[in-house]
Amino acid sequence: MGVAMGGGLYEAAGAALVRLYGPQSRAAITGITLVAGFASTVGWPLSTLLEAELGWRGACMASAGLHLLMGLPLDAWGAGALMLSGAIGLLAAAALATVPRPVAQESQR
């Protein structure tokens, strides 16, 4: 459970994005922060509503079900997109490595 919790922290997400995208990771980190802020805005009232209607055990089960039905497919899609972008980047790098580079010509005097 600790590994799963660690994977959901801002620090871990930010470090992973910086590792993947370097200086261009700023926009992705900002997007994660924005989405997470909206998630808290929706999550707290929804949790309160579920607990009031279903009790704490029912709210936990409903929350787990929502995570499995909505979160798991989104995570799988996101991971697939990252792997695809990584594979495309590797293919592009391999293709560029095989392109012959023009030889610089010395200027004529």
Oligomer status: single chain
Distance N to C terminus: 72 Å
Indicate the radius of gyration in whole angstroms. 23 Å
Give the uncertain stretches in residue-range form.
none
> What is the mean predicted local confidence, pLDDT?
74
Q: Please state roughly what percent of the residues sit in beta strands, choosing from under 5%, 5-15%, 15-25%, 25-35%, 35-45% or over 45%.
A: under 5%
Estimate the helix proportion, in percent: over 70%
Number of helices: 3
Summed up, the domain count is 1
What does this structure look like?
The protein is mostly helical. The protein has one domain. The chain has helices at 2-7, 10-21, 26-98. Helix 2 runs parallel beside helix 3.
List the helices and strands and how they pair.
Blueprint (H helix, E strand, L loop, with lengths): L1 H6 L2 H12 L4 H73 L11
Which keywords apply here?
single chain; mainly alpha
In short:
The chain is an all-alpha fold. It has one domain.
